[in-house]
Amino acid sequence: MTRYNIHPVTPQERLIKKACEHFINGEIGIIPTDTVYAIACSLYNTKAIERIALIKGVDPEKANFSILVKNLSHLSEFAKPISNEIFRVIKKLTPGPYTFILEANHKVPKIFHRKKKSIGLRVPDHPIVQALLDELLWPLVSTSLKIEQNADLDEVYLTDPDEIEEKFEKVVDFMIDGGEGKKIPSTVLDCRGDKIVVIRQGLGEIPF
Fold first, then answer.
1. Taking the CA of residue 136 as centre, how many other CA atoms within 13 Å lie in the half-sphere pointing to its CB?
2. Rounded to the nearest 10 degrees, how much is the dihedral formed by the CA atoms of 91, 95, 99, 101?
3. Which residue of 25, 48, 106, 111 shows the fewest CB atoms closer than 10 Å?
4. What are 139-160's pLDDT values in tens digits?
5. Which of 115, 120, 19 is nearest to 66 (CA)?
6. Mean pLDDT calculated for residue range 4-24
7. 80-105 pLDDT per residue, tens
8. pTM (2 d.p.)
9. C-alpha to C-alpha distance for 132 and 8, rounded to whole angstroms
10. What are phi and psi of 187, to 5 degrees?
11. Cβ distance 152 to 4 under 8 Å?
């Protein structure tokens, strides 16, 4: 596994390009986000998505993976139309630590909606993720780096890059060390109905 030490505020362009080469080549990696560390790959590489599903022990067609995008310009690319009211709320909360559950349209890669009618969309507020998306020019698929469920919430997610490397060095192709990660995942908001419903309270505050 290749490890890149990338500054969490001012990412080095040279290292961002090297990390993106892995995604372009269909590989998977661990990246920091504005919430917890995540395993990620290109949205358009089915085999890479299947690898991540295997690591997580889930069916790729049923997995609750998120699509990471740079901004809301991708909203109509993957989701069916939403009301102006809901769009205004999403716009207010992005970029930020939120996952928006939306109805998938026909443009979403087939692996995502053969059996699923929805997608989870994320616009992370993290310089490294934004730099990766800038360089790639297409979205990433991600899922949180969650370990065994534990009664103590602090133990659910790996936050130390050294521990992450030790556990996953033979599982993924590369990782980005962006410093100590957060321990709380994103807030999940279901935006498929007339009103937004909170599915999971995470790092993001609820403004309504």
1. 27
2. 30
3. 106
4. 999 999 876 555 454 557 899 9
5. 120
6. 98
7. 999 999 999 999 999 999 999 999 88
8. 0.92
9. 12
10. -80, 130
11. no
pLDDT recorded at residue 147: 66
31, 49, 79, 157, 193 from 143: Cα distances, Å: 10, 10, 19, 12, 24
Answer yes or no: are the C-beta atoms of 98 and 124 closer than 8 Å. no
The span from the CA of 149 to the CA of 153, in Å, is 8
Helix axis angle for 13-24 and 127-136, nearest 10°, is 60
* Domains located in the chain, CATH noted: 2-200 (3.90.870.10)
- Please provide residue 3's backbone torsions phi and psi, each rounded to the nearest 5 degrees: -115, 130
Residue with tokens 């009664």: 151
